Amino acid sequence: xxxxxxxxxxxxxxxxxxxxxxxxxxxxxxxxxxxxxxxxxxxxxxxxxxxxxxxxxxxxxxxxxxxxxxxxxxxxxxxxxxxxxxxxxxxxxxxxxxxxxxxxxxxxxxxxxxxxxxxxxxxxxxxxxxxxxxxxxxxxxxxxxxxxxxxxxxxxxxxxxxxxxxxxxxxxxxxxxxxxxxxxxxxxxxxxxxxxxxxxxxxxxxxxxxxxxxxxxxxxxxxxxxxxxxxxxxxxxxxxxxxxxxxxxxxxxxxxxxxxxxxxxxxxxxxxxxxxxxxxxxxxxxxxxxxxxxxxxxxxxxxxxxxxxxxxxxxxxxxxxxxxxxxxxxxxxxxxxxxxxxxxxxxxxxxxxxxxxxxxxxxxxxxxxxxxxxxxxxxxxxxxxxxxxxxxxxxxxxxxxxxxxxxxxxxxxxxxxxxxxxxxxxxxxxxxxxxxxxxxxxxxxxxxxxxxxxxxxxxxxxxxxxxxxxxxxxxxxxxxxxxxxxxxxxxxxxxxxxxxxxxxxxxxxxxxxxxxxxxxxxxxxxxxxxxxxxxxxxxxxxxxxxxxxxxxxxxxxxxxxxxxxxxxxxxxxxxxxxxxxxxxxxxxxxxxxxxxxxxxxxxxxxxxxxxxxxxxxxxxxxxxxxxxxxxxxxxxxxxxxxxxxxxxxxxxxxxxxxxxxxxxxxxxxxxxxxxxxxxxxxxxxxxxxxxxxxxxxxxxxxxxxxxxxxxxxxxxxxxxxxxxxxxxxxxxxxxxxxxxxxxxxxxxxxxxxxxxxxxxxxxxxxxxxxxxxxxxxxxxxxxxxxxxxxxxxxxxxxxxxxxxxxxxxxxxxxxxxxxxxxxxxxxxxxxxxxxxxxxxxxxxxxxxxxxxxxxxxxxxxxxxxxxxxxxxxxxxxxxxxxx
Length: 883
Fold this sequence. Notes:
Helix content: 25-40%
């Protein structure tokens, strides 16, 4: 038996892509330096960096090789959900405007994808239409026409697109019909073939044993491409087996863009994916998924997120099983009672190893179970359930009776919360609000089955761009928030606990480069407020203080610093990814300072750089004076922004590049554009903000000091990982929690405070150190004073609460890692402004004095502690006794 030849990972060398990524090979004219206006102004969505990179690479290949037959078939290897159709929409405009193509043939293997793409590219009434309407290029209105066949004579300012499933295209090509497409009509004009889900079109290359139909599809596209020497074939896929020797040889010089799933997820463009592994019965898994889903909905409601509707997919092995499970599910929900649900939650809560379910159970245990059952029966019933089983290869969306429900799951008018299915999510199902996938049954643990499940998870990970604080985002926003809020950006795969299955699933996920977190990967530590502290007057009647805010008047914004931007301290532009991608991919540390250097790119005061800066500005509509004036009301001209010392007159654009990088005009322009984008963002985001005042108002201690949990990633022997853990605080009545969940720096800080406590207690009758967890409260202080440049709120980690004979003193304290001191210097300056002579305390609080002091900082190199002298300042202010 002959073993299939495979390519090891380290041997995969994509030569064309490597050439494209090696920017040293480019002259200023190779590849577009920025997205042309005829593309950017005609797309509804702004292209992301990696999407622009794909267009850039296509342009570079076409400029360098033209219609060379070796480069008339190119592939975009992009992750599921990364916006391949947006790239396709941009490519159509590029091929039309730059290269004069008017005829496009879109084909794929499923009718569902064809239907979806027709809406994307031609139906201006569809909410998923990707172009602006009207479409204007060089002042001329351009029409996009869907056609069954290409006309003899092409009209000016017209783009023609033929949409066809590959099987229908094969039939039309081989058996001509009246008014249908023919070899002659396909050959009379130069043509761009847009082949989506293109992994279906290389079956003949990868295996001579696969079905003849799929092999013929590959040959069909080869034939069509050969009808005209100027024909181009652009392929799009998220799945290609480059380890297959034949596939590798075919595509090593055809792939011009690669953006894999792990990079897509790590860049924040998708949900985080978690595997929730349990020994539960199918019934218990279903109820757990429902409780987790409904908990998400409650979180979203509490955060003011409108129309947030999380969907659960229950995946079975067979259609018969799926229908049966569907019935069991509805029976289970219908039979729920307050007593049975409470018993289930209490029982599960005692044994779960899952962080997500632990949070879920903790929440529902605090709710009224009668109301919860009523809510679940309303949201998970027959009317909110769809059974979408497909019995063949045409996919879930082929069946017209469920297509509408499945294609509009994100719509507030669509009530569906649960979907029952057998097959993997079909190519073309772009559901975004899928948050739980539940694997039903213990069968099907072979690699081919887990491969399908891995693809399912990858498609389900698409990000849901819900509206929060009035804004829609297409990247994750809550990675640094408390775990329950992160549930709004996580997909959970509820699976079985079978060792062989789990190993096969792991291999399948690795094969598509899909990073999946284990639900038990994080230790969850809990800190409870001590009962002894809850009995104190400080907890029951005491307050802590934060300052009121006021709207900043437009007249305040008379210089760039007042937008929170200091040209003298802003971070350099990162050009490393553009100049040393191959080094990064081979293992070099991107942040290794020995491999990088800082270079001056441009100076706004240098006359020789004015043309470069003006060119960069011309590509950003924001810097047209009418728009700029809306954010900068005190400006009199764009020239003032660029030349005045109060604005950018002395700004210097610096960039970090790989050592030895030649700073080409193209790279210089890119750096200045990135710098101006940074300026654009701060001018928009920091105008019309609120700033702090010197008026401090009370909030009850018991509203801020609450039990909290902290999720800590397991270090796995990583010496650079922060060693965060619980430090027992029993017997230390001055610390208000039973555990201090801290890193080493915070632990040292607490120990130093602890050493001072006996001396402090000689002066004050009650001493408490309050730990403020930002993810547990919205309690923050804001910068105040005449020169306020920072508008975001800030909460120091600790408050020292001192109860004396005549006054209650409260001191804001912050241990700070040395490498963060300079970045957070404004916070230290804010703390030091908090003194009784600078502030007013609202209400009848003449017996309260507030203070802030310097950061507590340790020098790792010398071993010295309190290098900024926090304790000295506390002694000088008389807040702790001098020893």
